[in-house]
Amino acid sequence: MTTLPRIGIVISTTRPTRFANRPTQWVYEIARKRTDAVFEIVDLRDYPLPLFEEEVSPRFGTPRNEVAKRWAEKVASLDGFIFVTAEYNHSISGALKNALDYAYNEFNRKPATFVAYGAVGGARAVEQLRLILAELQVASLKHSVHIGMIEFLGMLQQGKTFADFPYLDATAEPMLDELVWWATALKTATDKDRAEPEEALEKAAA
Ligand SMILES: Cc1cc2nc3c(=O)[nH]c(=O)nc-3n(C[C@H](O)[C@H](O)[C@H](O)COP(=O)(O)O)c2cc1C
Questions:
Q1: Residue 3, exposed/middle/buried by CB under 10 A (0-12, 13-18, 19+)?
Q2: What's the pTM value of the predicted model, to 2 decimals?
Q3: Ligand 1 site, residue 22, Cβ cutoff 6 A
Q4: Fewest C-beta in 10 Å: which of 41, 72, 132, 142?
Q5: Element at 28 (helix H, strand E)
Q6: Which residue has the CA at smallest separation from atom 8 of ligand 1?
Q7: Domain 6-205 has CATH 2.40.33.20
Q8: What does each of the 206 residues of the chain score in pLDDT, given as a tens digit?
């Protein structure tokens, strides 16, 4: 029997005064009400990885670094991802890119969506992230939440909260619907491959 998909909400920035906690908590509170998936917050701060220093790509060998092993195990335990991402110089944070470099097979054939924030809603970072995820064989979905300048500055400088921008909730729901659909579908297929490994190998070789 296939169990509910497990979705990781990845906090992708690590600096002490980061804004990231607020959109993470917001989307988690919406997501956790669902009964068709299980959600957990995965904080990159809990995985203080060195700048990539392994001998080979994680595609071809398990990293030797203990934090990297723990990170790969966490990624392996998840069936889908919501990347909560800022935009750093029109791209993702160095911390997120480094973390993505530290796992490979554990990401394959899993879906991802995005909650992004910044001057243009973090859109440029998300587009760059999609390109990286293609190599990791992550299915990046169309639906995403973009917290733009008005909402972002409203919360940062004017004491506003997500409750002042209810239309953001309306963009989160279809994003979560799609993510859970894809996570369930891909998990079902992956579970079947694991249950019938010989058949899966024959198909891959054909
Ligand atoms: C190194 C750096 C580069 C940044 N570049 C951009 C950028 O290209 N576009 C943008 O909208 N905001 C940019 N910002 C502003 C961030 O959107 C803002 O600082 C945000 O709070 C960062 O996310 P965090 O608080 O979770 O770290 C940049 C911030 C930093 C620290």
A1: exposed
A2: 0.95
A3: no
A4: 142
A5: helix 21-31
A6: 89
A7: no
A8: 569 999 999 999 999 999 999 999 999 999 999 999 999 999 999 999 999 999 999 999 999 999 999 999 999 999 999 999 999 999 999 999 999 999 999 999 999 999 999 999 999 999 999 999 999 999 999 999 999 999 999 999 999 999 999 999 999 999 999 999 999 999 999 999 989 877 777 777 76
